Amino acid sequence: MDKQNNKRIRTRDEFSSFLESLFSVVSAENIIYDPERLTAYECDGLTAFRATPLAVLLPRSVEEILSILAVCKRYKVPIVPRGAGTGLSGGATPIEGAVVLSLARFNRVLEIDPKNRTARVEPGVTNIRVSQEAAPYGLYFSPDPSSQIACTIGGNIAENAGGIHCLKYGLTVNNVLGLKLITLEGDILTLGGKGAESPGYDLLPLIVGSEGLLGIIVEATLRLLPKPECAQLVVGCFDDLAKASQAVSLILSFGIIPSGLEMMDKLVLDAVQADMPRALLNSAQAILFCEVDGMQEEVEEQSIRVKEIMLKAGAKEIVVSKDDSERMLLWKCRKSAFPAMGRISPDYYCMDGTIPRKKLAYLLKKIDELSAHYNLKVGNVFHAGDGNLHPLILYDQSVPGEFEKVEKMGEKILELCVQVGGVITGEHGVGLEKLNSMCIQFSSEEIEQFRRVKKAFDPYSLLNPAKTIPTLHRCAEFGKMHLHKDNDLWGGLERF
Amino acid sequence: MDKQNNKRIRTRDEFSSFLESLFSVVSAENIIYDPERLTAYECDGLTAFRATPLAVLLPRSVEEILSILAVCKRYKVPIVPRGAGTGLSGGATPIEGAVVLSLARFNRVLEIDPKNRTARVEPGVTNIRVSQEAAPYGLYFSPDPSSQIACTIGGNIAENAGGIHCLKYGLTVNNVLGLKLITLEGDILTLGGKGAESPGYDLLPLIVGSEGLLGIIVEATLRLLPKPECAQLVVGCFDDLAKASQAVSLILSFGIIPSGLEMMDKLVLDAVQADMPRALLNSAQAILFCEVDGMQEEVEEQSIRVKEIMLKAGAKEIVVSKDDSERMLLWKCRKSAFPAMGRISPDYYCMDGTIPRKKLAYLLKKIDELSAHYNLKVGNVFHAGDGNLHPLILYDQSVPGEFEKVEKMGEKILELCVQVGGVITGEHGVGLEKLNSMCIQFSSEEIEQFRRVKKAFDPYSLLNPAKTIPTLHRCAEFGKMHLHKDNDLWGGLERF
């Protein structure tokens, strides 16, 4: 991670005095500083990076947060906000000399408003709970990251989380209507609301996806959607990834907007095969999941059309869900893909990048080449409709130097994404993981502008610093340059 | 407008030297400084505010813009960006001692990409032209402000323009995928692109609607939509505004998302009646337009349902368009509402505010009361589906003091919008017009945060200063305070 020089706590005495200040404003049961208990907070879902925080704070009120921010500002102690810690890019991983500010106790559902189809919740509420509370009104919250049972709304907003349904219903940013945010200066800002238009600068979408660098979210107003009358899942198997990719393009070009359009390759299929219907395993190189939802007749008509398109694109076998329980069973194969990798490899590293859909076949070929070059197996699961790839690089943590190789290969994959006009993240964020890749994605002017925006919210750079936005110094050291902008000041390109 | 003290050009000599610098970097035919020709640039669609700029610059290239910005920065001369000047809140109105930077000559359509359904255009391209160029591919650009024949994409983006179809297809912000922006520092930033996710801070939606305060847009990538297979317009007349409002709620609660849902009251109806089908004029107090679009069967089914709902809500008469030419004819009544006001009043002032739909009936009653209080007639046309009101205050410019009364009444209406949980703009922006109302909408902390964001892009406050974001000093002088936030530091409320 990038080094920061604003650390203030250097001695045991300074630490004691800092702790004392915290105890004077926060209830004792809301402060963890016992080293044993701190280990639980050493990392998030990106387990390869770890650091022990000075302390973990679990405030229960806005007032406690304001006091914590004031104390940290006085001692120049960085603050790392944290939801459930399920993120995959290190956004909630502590940095050296920082405290972790957990929003776990901000876990109340404040209001379900069925008339306006909104939910007002605190950031520590889990994603799944919003839909559970909305269910009696026939409503649900559409972003559904695969960690939805555990992950929290605050984390979803920080990372602009996606999920299977975001092709049709949008990412988190499209489903958040309002936020209450505390800045490091202790200002409480109310952003957005229940309407579409926002006078002044629209800061709401700036905060969504800002990975905890601009403020502490203490409340969110979410858009709820009416549950579709029905949904049907069409699953096809193909003997060639390119044919499955072709089916994706065809489905979308027919004006069908599936509620889910997902693909898995052979290696992933091998891992999950115990869960798959036998017919689909028949010499399959790729599996395509296409769900359509809406009103009964519309869904029936569309799923017939999807089946026809898949056959035309060369599908070998097709299974169409007969009812909701069969649909959920089929989805289970897709949703179990990540955990199932454990059956075939001791460890795996989940990448996340997005490319224009038409480059899908090209990029998969390139990933194959990288896989051979680095001698690392790669499984591919992806949100095909959005062009959001999740290459899973298989490796063994116990082999010295292997993770470093994995990291290098991961960077190469992201470089390829940028090269074909894509971006270095789809839904997992940048965090600690992709700082180098940011140097490829953005020009020095763009990174400088990011840093100026950061300063407009957090002049002392105490909120989750050293993440997401690299320093220009780091980019210079990294020695690669951004790829696809006209205003490139960096000179030539280094390509794979 | 708010006073700024950074003006540098005070003497004729300084002006000559400034002009000389401009001539050294911009072709002579791209500079207007002859007073007669400058009058055309004294205001935008908000004709009540006027000022003469020092000069008008019409650059043809990014290099010329960069040079202009550098010269203006050296002389500390404010810059007012301008599209077609059709805006209604004074966003493109010059301020004292400023130059106008017209993007009129950035008028090329750079690319129509039917496969990705995008258009890449320069900011001076008119709104309608994008749809015209996309038409051969069966595509169109959905935001359709009523000035769409004249207004430009740059202006649409600056004001986050809407139109009749934004209930279903979103405001401009939902239809812009990428931007190329020049900051006052001369940095060229590429924001967004063809994909959904944006690593780092998502600056794109921050720029959309920022009213020319954060940078100069030189290129935009727009989302194109496939033209719906068919559309049908259901128009109903009601003897009571409340019944028509009820129909709006009912239609939406049935899960129908109309492609247009518009209302007009009696006074507006009187103005446009020459264009209306006779049946609809029958003792009508309100007219409701509801358009549905999509696939043939779906549209037929939905328009029958809309008709049933309108009847249930108490419609006296209903006309359903039989074909596209009848549909366009019916829409003409709605679209001619603004110009038609000229038939019944020498002048009118068009307001723009947004409220939660359920407050529609309440707010219309309140506007009636204000109309009586100020003795000013008000016609109401609105995007009912979005809760976006356009009260048209009728007056006579030649009566001394009447416009001041109109302005005061306008402010009161916006105050009411905020009071019921709404906002002070729907699609026209803040500009010069609504600076005072911003003090009601936002807390001092929020306004301060806006100013910090402005500074992160434009540290010398030279880009369209004194607009959109009021100074705290102005808010204090205005003496009213924001209405609906918890963190109100301003003390009590002054209400109408």
Q: Would you mind describing this structure in some detail?
A:
- The structure is a homodimer of 496-residue chains.
- Chain A is α+β, with helices and mostly antiparallel strands and 496 residues long.
- Among the domains of chain A are: 109-226, Uridine Diphospho-n-acetylenolpyruvylglucosamine Reductase, domain 3 (2-Layer Sandwich), CATH 3.30.465; 230-340, Alpha-Beta Plaits, CATH 3.30.70.2190.
- Chain A is built from 17 helices and 19 strands.
- The first copy, chain A, has helices spanning 12-25, 35-38, 62-75, 127-134, 153-159, 166-169, 204-207, 241-253, 266-272, 296-312, 324-335, 337-340, 360-374, 402-419, 435-441, 444-457, 472-478, and strands at 31-32, 55-57, 79-82, 99-102, 109-113, 118-121, 139-140, 176-182, 188-192, 216-223, 225-226, 230-238, 260-265, 286-294, 317-320, 347-350, 353-354, 378-383, 388-395.
- In chain A, the strands form four sheets. In chain A, strands 12, 13, 14, 15, 16, 17, 18 and 19 form an eight-stranded antiparallel sheet that branches. In chain A, strands 5-6-10-8-9 form a five-stranded antiparallel sheet. A four-stranded mixed sheet of chain A has the order 1-2-4-3.
- Chain A is globular, with a radius of gyration of 23 Å.
- The first copy, chain A, starts with 11 loop residues before the first helix and ends in an 18-residue tail after the last helix.
- Chains A and B meet through strand 9, helix 7, helix 15 and helix 16 of A and strand 9, helix 7, helix 15 and helix 16 of B.
- Chains A, B: This is Glycolate oxidase subunit GlcD.
- Chains A, B: Residues 49-227 form the FAD-binding PCMH-type domain.
